[in-house]
Amino acid sequence: MLGPGVVGLAFIVVAIAVYVLSNPNRYGFYDHFVWQAQAWLDGSAAIRYPVSEGIRANDYYQDVLDLGDQALTARLGLPYQPGNALVPFPPLPAVLLLPFVAIWGLATSGALVAAVLGGINVGLCWRMLTRVTDRRGAAFMGTITYGFGTVAWYAAMLGTTWFQAHVLASTLLFLSITAALDAERREAIEGAGRAIAGRFPIRGIWAGLLLGLACLSRLTALFNAPFYAFVGPGRTWLRRSVAAGFGTLLPLLVLVAYNLATTGHVFHPAYDHIREIETKPAPELYHADWGTEDPRYILVNWPVMLLYGPVQAEPGAFNSPCTPTTDLLDQLWNADSPCPIRPDAMGMSIFLTTPAYLLILPALLFGWRRRIVVGASLAVLCTALAALAHFSQGWVQFGYRFSNDFAPFAMILVTLGIVEAGRWRIGRVVAPVLVVASVVINLWGVHWGVAQGW
Prior knowledge:
The protein is an all-alpha fold.
């Protein structure tokens, strides 16, 4: 039998190959973090903007704060700097790209880096799941589900700005979860030999630090924090929470310091500015009088995450209906079909794009007393609610890209659900069917994302 390290390496090699080859023509259409890294190397926090010529243009970027807008800068108390703009997103992906940009400059492909890192994430998922269960088959199926049966594949192969952030945050979440599991196991082994009840769980700080770093890529990662009250060293929920919370706080303080230094605000003011830009042309989608994060949006957005399906529309049209044909396979795969069936650009249900998420149900039903199940469930629930409360749901996209923010924790539940399903003959059939169906559907989604230039 191959050792877990060999299997993990094989997962990485295969996933990198699949992710890179899924989208060989990477255009770098949105590469905010390459621009940000170049700005730092040039000694500035602001990127050059708008740039319409040269090796890379950015004059079509919408998600920036234009410092050449005199009225806007005056309203926000920012310096008026024509020819410059601020990138609003947490900066860690740009930090990752610094060495590459130092060598290749603006020619750096952030999307290619995301594809490689996404492949590494599949190996990290396997590494994490071998701590979750000693059933190698279940861990293997769980890893297949994550790597090729969730929108992690779409995110990594596309690798534009927002997906770069998702991929890097997932890397750190896998490392954080594994650190918490390893620390808890090590504490249990040490506790068998001597009393450690009075010791502060130092190792829990490391797991929290990695969670905090994930927040420097995707702020929504913070809502996974309830997991660390239930899993990790410390023996009690309070001690676990304090240790992980202390570690998480350190990177968040760095982010606050960065925001203050670059904008004079604790929270980056570009977020509200982006909401104002997007709500004006689409009042039917957004509410101008609601906040960027508003609980009222949960009731508006939940169908995107749970109910939306594919659309049947004219080629190249956003949502114009067409006359169905009798060739179903042609409609499902051919973008030039008279009436193609493609993903809805607004999003699709997580249970339709990843039917294997249904395996969470047996994990909850039979494992609800286990701390790891409770912690992972709360992480998924809290993060999903935070995503739904956001004014925009992440379009254009295949599936529901915000699910990347809780996918590492959902994979814990899926894998435990596979273990539970394996106790029954029908479960041993249904679980692989759901995993295979997830892979096939995500292959379809990746195909359409590339075909439509999303």
